[in-house]
Amino acid sequence: xxTASRKALVGALMMAALQxxxxxxxxxYHRFNCDRSTDARFSVNGQxxxxxxxxxxxxxxxxxxxxxxxxxxxxxxxxxxxxxxxxARLIEKVRxxxxxxxxxxxxxxxxxxxxxxxxxxxxxxxxxxxxxxxxVRKVLWDNQEHEMAQxxxxxxxxxxxxxxxxxxxxxxxxxxxxxxx
Length: 181
What we know:
By secondary structure, this protein is α+β, with helices and mostly antiparallel strands. The chain has a domain at 34-94 and 134-174. The chain has three helices and six strands. It has a four-stranded antiparallel β-sheet, with no helix packed on it. The chain has a two-stranded antiparallel ribbon with strand order 2-5.
């Protein structure tokens, strides 16, 4: 019984190690698998990132861009897995005030002609305005509007928190099964 549980534990640890290794490949994918820019202004640096992307599921990569800096965002998907038409959008999340009107029902006492309470109550409806702060997503760039461009360059006029949203369609061709090879 002991050897069976040890084997199960070793098997579970090996699977966990493989999973961690596979995720590591995703985080450094751009360093080893993508072409470098020929423009000397752009280089792989501490802010350069890769993101694990799941087919058909929107993936968000949060970045901070700084005032006075030039940026280049390049897509370099593994087309065998993610497909060739990866959709990319650059989104700014902005907090904006919005006024909402709510109906409030209050219970008020009923008074007789002498101003004395009768013991009855009635519901009175009134409108109340409130200002709420909402997160609004503003699309700054969408590669679907730019012939599925795989890169975008921009300069930043103020420091902002941006989101790179990616949606992968999946591989175009069906992979053969091992028995078919």
